[in-house]
From TrEMBL:
It comes from Streptomyces pyxinicus. PANTHER family: HYDROLASE ALPHA/BETA FOLD FAMILY (PTHR43194), PEROXISOMAL MEMBRANE PROTEIN LPX1 (PTHR43194:SF2). The keyword Hydrolase applies. This is Alpha/beta hydrolase. It comes from the Bacteria. Residues 27-138 form the AB hydrolase-1 domain. The lineage of its organism: Bacteria, Bacillati, Actinomycetota, Actinomycetes, Kitasatosporales.
Length: 266
C-alpha cells in the first residue's frame, strides 16, 4: 500500500505482482467506479487472479474515494484522467498497458485511451461507456437523486436501504451521499467535457465490453460496434450493473483472454 502524489492530490495505490520468481509480462491498471466503489472491489474479485496469471496489477482509489485525498473541488472527468496520467508517470509505468474500468472507471479509462492512444494495448470496459452528452445527462440525474433523496431525510432513506439492500450497502450509500454533498463532484461530472463520435472512433486498440444481461447498457452494444473498429461484447444473462462482484471469475476470465494471459479463471 502507498500514497502517491499525483500532482495536487494524494492517491491511495495498491500493487499486486506475480508469485515470487516470476517476472510480470505486462501491466494492467484497474480503475473503479463512482461514489460507492473503491479499489477494494478489484482486490476481492479479479486482481489476485490477474497477478497469479503473471501480470503487474495496479489499483488505486479515485480522488475523493477510499483512502485517497478528498479535495473540495476538481471532479470533472478530465481531472480523473489527469490523475491517472500523473499516477502512471509517478509509478514509472511506461510501455503499452492494459486498462480495465468498471462503470465510471471505464469512462475514465476510455478517456485516457482517447487522449494517449499509443500507451494502451487493450481496453476492458465493465458495465461502462465512453463520455457522451447522453452519458453526462444520465450521470447528472443519478447524482441529483443521490444528493436530494438522502439530504431530505437521511435517516429514513438509510433505514430503507438497510432493510432492502443490507447494512453494507447502507454504509456505502451514506459515504457516497457525503462525497456528493461536500464536494463539487455532483456538479463537475455532468459538466465534464465529452467525446465526439470521431474521437471515440479513433480508439483503435482491442476493446472488450462486459455487460449484465439485465443492464440498460446492453442497448449501447450495437452503437459501440459501429464506432469501434475492434470491439467485442460479452453479455452475462441474469446480471445487472454489479456484474463485477456477482460474477468475478467469468468477468476476469474474459479479460485475461483479451490480454492473452492464459486460459482465464472461469
Amino acid at each position: 500500500m502507498a500514497m502517491v502524489d499525483a500532482g495536487g492530490v494524494r492517491l491511495h495505490v495498491q500493487r499486486l505482482g506475480p508469485p515470487a520468481g516470476r517476472v510480470p509480462h505486462a501491466t494492467v491498471v484497474l480503475v473503479h467506479g463512482l461514489l460507492t466503489d473503491s479499489l477494494a472491489s478489484y482486490y476481492f474479485t479479479v486482481a489476485p487472479a490477474f497477478a497469479a496469471a503473471g501480470l503487474d496489477v495496479v489499483m488505486y482509489d479515485l480522488r475523493g474515494h477510499g483512502r485517497s485525498e478528498r479535495p473540495p473541488e476538481g471532479y470533472t472527468l478530465d481531472h480523473n484522467i489527469d490523475d491517472l496520467t500523473a499516477l502512471l508517470d509517478r509509478l514509472d509505468v511506461t510501455g503499452p498497458l492494459h486498462l480495465v474500468g468498471n462503470s465510471y472507471g471505464g469512462t475514465i479509462a476510455f478517456g485516457f485511451t482517447a487522449r494517449h492512444p499509443g500507451r494502451v494495448a487493450t481496453l476492458a470496459l465493465i458495465e461502462s461507456e465512453p463520455a457522451t452528452a447522453s452519458w453526462a445527462a444520465k450521470l447528472g440525474r443519478i447524482l441529483h437523486r443521490v444528493t436530494t433523496q438522502l439530504a431530505g431525510d437521511e435517516a429514513a432513506a438509510l433505514a430503507w436501504i438497510t432493510a432492502h439492500r443490507g447494512h453494507n450497502t447502507a454504509r456505502l450509500a451514506k459515504g457516497a451521499a457525503r462525497l456528493a454533498r461536500e464536494t463539487t463532484l455532483g456538479r463537475d461530472i455532468p459538466a465534464s467535457r465529452v467525446l465526439t463520435e470521431a474521437q471515440i472512433s479513433a480508439v483503435r486498440c482491442p476493446v472488450l465490453g462486459v455487460y449484465g444481461g439485465d443492464s440498460d447498457l446492453v442497448d449501447l452494444v450495437p452503437l459501440k460496434r459501429g464506432l469501434l473498429g475492434d470491439f467485442r461484447a460479452v453479455v452475462l444473462p441474469g446480471h445487472e450493473h454489479s456484474v463485477l462482484v456477482e460474477a468475478p471469475g467469468t468477468v476476469g476470465g474474459h479479460i485475461l483472454d483479451l490480454l492473452g494471459a492464459g486460459a482465464g479463471v472461469r
